[in-house]
Amino acid sequence: MATKRFSRARNAEEEKLDTQLLQQFVPLVEFLGKVLGPRSEVVLHDASKADKSVIAIANNQVSGRQVGAPATDFMLRLLQEGNANGKDYVVGYQGRTALSKNALISSTYLIRRKKRIIGALCINTDQTPFLRLERALEEVGASYSFAAQGETPQSHEEENLITSIEDVATEVIADASAKAGTDVESFGLDQRLAVISQLNDQGYFNFKGSVAKVAKQLGISVSTTYRYLHMIDDQQ
Question: Which of 90, 45, 50 is nearest to 70 (CA)?
């Protein structure tokens, strides 16, 4: 059964003018299709032809439709009832296609002449890649993140995943240098003792060859480093 709006008779001149206006949107379909990319289908509908309303389409792999495909149920409702909010467009509603289980994000621009809806320019964007990414991120979060599981870490301890034992000393020395506002070559006894003490507290000297390595970074001898360690032990 024809809708109310489809059944309204149009004389030949009115029909010609409607067609001419719609034809001006045809190049825009291809343009938008290239700008938006292959995941966004762009469709131009002629409202006077419910059974074959699609007169131009770009990126039709999204829905599998061709020129000559019929109007959608959404468009039929708009033509039957009009656009209730009086706007020239409807954006961000869900669309579906037989080619995908995932919903599309759809928007429709209504083309009017003399206040009549004579056509529509529609954009349907396939959200499948975004949904896959969202699911992947959720899986990663569930696997590795306490927060994602609704839990909180049970400790305030920190861990540095080092690649060499020099990294530990380098980090402590750099921190001491920043606090002292001077480079390691200008360290006094207090700064050196502070570095050795912190490294000792962290268990750094359990590493084989650690004394020689930190001595080199501090620019002091191995024997001096051992002397500092004895001084620290005597203070404890």
Answer: 50
